[in-house]
Design a protein that fits this description.
five-stranded parallel beta sheet, alpha/beta, disordered N terminus, 527 residues, Rossmann fold
């Protein structure tokens, strides 16, 4: 006789089997799903960008994987419209590129623009028109078939800080959350501020805004993350203007870059100093295309130019500078007659204020001479590149030691270097030296120069390039890399302050470049 229990189980056996099957399916699904999500989470690395600390979900990442923030990994696997599981995860393209912009009090930027008539007090120059079109200045209405319509403006070379700020407003990876930012941008118009108080004011007045700025910054929570080493600012004047080394009233400029807090920041400007936390980015030219096609069109136009002059020089002598070589250059240009074109930019002359005049000369020249001016650098460097005119440099501080993010490290690929340390060492016959250059080398140099054009222009602030990186893009990439290298040091347990703001006494010396040029001249004379 069957027991009651056995009888009862056997009578309900189909239901029991079904229940066991159902429980088994649930367990199987749970096992599969947990395996899938476990695989994904094993690759997640939580980055604390604020302090450089890293928390790994596994002991080490396999080769070929990059560290990504947990915010960039979806918490659940995504499905398509049919409900099928999608392979892979969405990666945030802005990871490592986010920039937080400080909302500074208006006295540090906006008020300076509104008081533009005071920026050049004591002169008859009015800066206000140059601030039109987001800092590009008024559009050139009569390009005389030398320039392209709608792309050229009367841009003031000292308005980089305004142009950069307006370009930043269109940057694709801006964030209002400073905790995820890779860099902190400080939109202080240091150059305009200095212009406001440059003449007739004591050092206390000249330094007032700088002192107010660093006080404001140091009180913000963002400052304490890296003590300012993830902060950067942009200036439209040369970096030396912000490195006054004493409080003598007769000394030039402000001491912004010698303030303790400022030493922890990086500065981008049209010319760097010899300190490691200053970086040079190109002067603003007058060419601001709004589309890539305009750049391509301009490049093709420069390739087809008829260049009737062997070399040219746009500038003025500098008799007040004892070792200036400009006088020698002008003398040799005039002596070369039809081989050289001189554009006189002497005091009082207006020829060089008009980009039509400058570009007309450079477009007609094979080589453009670029000696130092009031400082090492000059905007003419970038005007010559725009014109497809091969720049000729006489000092490493004019370009090679400056624009490391924008110009090729192999400077012999796009320029000619004729080192002259001192006027007493001048032994160059420009006409004979440049005439010896082989035609095939000239063609190679010119093509490299024309290829550089996208890298040295600031495209329209109202649009974004589709395929090309402009001067702004490369500057942003450069400073982000610089700050990330500091975070790497912190993660490795190193002190990021070591060498950060040190002076480099060898930055502008000839020795490094002269050694490289020996090999260049050997090749030059063998070709």
């Amino acid at each position: 006789m069957e027991s009651p229990i056995t009888s009862k189980c056997c009578n309900h056996q189909p239901w029991f089997v079904l229940l066991v099957f159902f429980v088994f399916c649930i367990e199987l699904f749970s096992f599969d799903y947990s395996g899938l999500t476990a695989k994904k989470s094993a690759l997640v690395t939580v980055l604390d960008d604020n302090h450089g600390n890293v928390i790994n979900t596994q002991s080490s990442l396999p080769h070929g994987f990059t560290e990504i923030t947990n915010a960039s990994v979806s918490p659940l696997p995504k499905t398509d419209e049919k409900g099928d599981l999608k392979v892979g995860t969405e990666i945030d393209s802005c990871v490592g590129r986010y920039i937080f912009v400080h909302d500074l009090p208006s006295r540090f930027n906006e008020d300076l623009v509104n008081n533009c008539r005071l920026l050049t007090r004591g002169t008859d120059k009015n800066m206000c028109p140059y601030l039109d079109n987001l800092g590009f200045g008024p559009e050139i209405e009569n390009p005389e078939d030398v320039l392209m319509n709608n792309s050229w403006f009367l841009t003031n070379q000292f308005l980089l800080e305004v142009i950069f700020h307006n370009k930043t407003k269109r940057y694709e990876c801006l964030t209002n959350d400073s905790s995820i930012a890779s860099a902190i941008y400080v939109p202080f118009y240091a150059g305009l501020d200095m212009s406001l108080y440059l003449w007739g004011f004591n050092t206390t007045v000249r330094d007032s805004a700088s002192l107010g700025l660093v006080k404001w910054l140091s009180e913000k929570p963002e400052w304490k993350r890296m003590w300012g080493r993830d902060h950067f600012l942009v200036a439209g004047r040369i970096a030396w203007d912000f490195r006054r080394q004493s409080d003598n009233e007769t000394d030039w400029g402000s001491k912004l870059r010698f303030l303790p807090e400022s030493k922890n920041m990086s500065m981008l400007s049209i010319e760097s100093s010899s300190w490691n936390n200053d970086y040079a980015i190109p002067y603003p030219t007058c060419f601001h295309p709004s589309k890539d096609s305009e750049i391509f069109q301009w490049q093709d136009r420069m390739r087809r130019q008829n260049r009737q002059y062997l070399f040219s020089f746009a500038g003025a002598p500098r008799p007040e500078y004892q070792n200036s070589i400009r006088g020698k250059i002008i003398d040799q240009c005039l002596a070369s007659k039809s081989q050289c074109k001189l554009l006189d930019c002497n005091y009082g002359a207006t020829n060089c204020d008009n980009p039509v005049n400058v570009m007309k000369v450079f477009q007609s020249s094979i080589f453009c001479l670029q000696p130092p001016g009031d400082s090492y650098t000059r905007r003419s460097i970038f005007d010559s590149i725009l014109a497809g005119c091969i720049p000729v440099f006489f000092h490493p501080g004019t370009a090679y030691a400056q624009y490391i993010w924008h110009l090729p490290k192999n400077y012999t690929a796009y320029s000619v270097y004729l080192p002259v340390k001192d006027l007493s060492e001048w032994k160059i016959n420009l006409n004979e030296t440049l005439l010896r250059m082989p035609e095939d080398r000239i063609l190679r140099l010119r093509e490299e120069v024309i290829k550089l054009i996208p890298r040295v222009v600031y495209t329209s602030s109202r649009s974004r390039s589709e395929t090309l990186e402009d001067a702004f893009d490369l500057a942003v990439k450069g400073i982000l890399d610089r700050i990330e290298s500091l975070r790497v040091m912190i993660r490795e347990g190193k002190d990021p302050s070591i060498g950060f703001a040190d002076g480099d006494d060898y930055k502008y010396t000839f020795s490094t470049y002269d050694t490289s040029m020996l090999n260049h001249f050997k090749i030059f004379h063998m070709v």
